[in-house]
Amino acid sequence: MMLFSAVEGTISRSGRKKSACCKILYFTIWNVFFVNVFTGSVIRQLRVFSSVKDIPAQLAIAVPAQAGFFLTYVLSSGWASLACEVMQLYPLLCNLIKKFILRIKSDSSNDALSFPYHTEIPRLLLFGFIGFTCSILVPLILPFLLVYFIMAFFVYRNQVLNVYVSKYESGGQYWPIVHNTTIFSLVLMQIIALGVFGLRKSPVASGFTIPLVIFTILFNEYCRQRFNPIFVNHVAEILIDMDQRDEQSGAMEEIHQMLQSAYCQFTVNPRDLFKCGCSNHQEDGVPVRVPENVKPGLIHPMLGRLPLFGIKDTISWLSLLFTFQGNHPAESASHK
């Protein structure tokens, strides 16, 4: 998912992780919840949805049938993931290979890990989603989820304070994802409750559930209009503080040097295509100097240099061909 997010062209590290977080969240909710519910009950019994009215009733029947799976998933994937997070097995293995096999004794600053928002936030939201949807029909799962979230609070608090290094400030960009997932979980829980009350032939309870769904959607719309601009437009004070910290740490010159080569692209002039793809060129009459150590080739802002030199040669030959064809009629007319 990080590779897909990088191919999208996202510039910042936080933007790539945010995009990957959304992809992983959609995949896990669909794969863990809906696929297991529907394949375990609906397809196995050869039932299909004849209308939209059948969806709440089918969910009310299918979710309890998979209660054992969800309970086992919380115990195995939830509690075990917290244990693996505390032990840090993968960094520990890499460190052992580096120290004892490769004989590298020096520690690099690049080895410091940042908090994996794109993997941990979808996992937390998935367990919250399971808790909301199963709380009506399978309340036995709630104590296990409560224990998981209590342990997760202490584990992630220790990891954020003592293990991971903060490499950037996202400005709360992940909170809208958490809010939207929680609202979706509430709406789905209310739809399942509507199906449960319909199966039990309780029209009064079903009648009170429908306004609850409407009020939840209206509350989401109010929060979107009231608080969403805060996450889209950053406060100028925070941005000024970030610039001041960069100036004090001496990182401004490095940032400026990185910006010179981050968006370096080859020119479209056919005569310059045979030269370096990132040679000096002019924009609005102002010469733009590019670092000399940049080699020819297509450059992606996030993926680095792509090994697609043949494409550049093909474009250069096509450009020369089109230029020759464009000039040939004019020469023929001048001879006539």
From TrEMBL:
Keywords: Membrane, Transmembrane, Transmembrane helix. Residues 1-197 form the CSC1/OSCA1-like 7TM region domain. The chain crosses the membrane at residues 24-43, 55-75, 124-156, 177-198, 204-223. Pfam families: RSN1_7TM (PF02714). InterPro entries: Csc1-like, CSC1/OSCA1-like_7TM. PANTHER family: CSC1-LIKE PROTEIN RXW8, PROBABLE MEMBRANE PROTEIN DUF221-RELATED. This is CSC1/OSCA1-like 7TM region domain-containing protein. The lineage of its organism: Eukaryota, Viridiplantae, Streptophyta, Embryophyta, Tracheophyta.
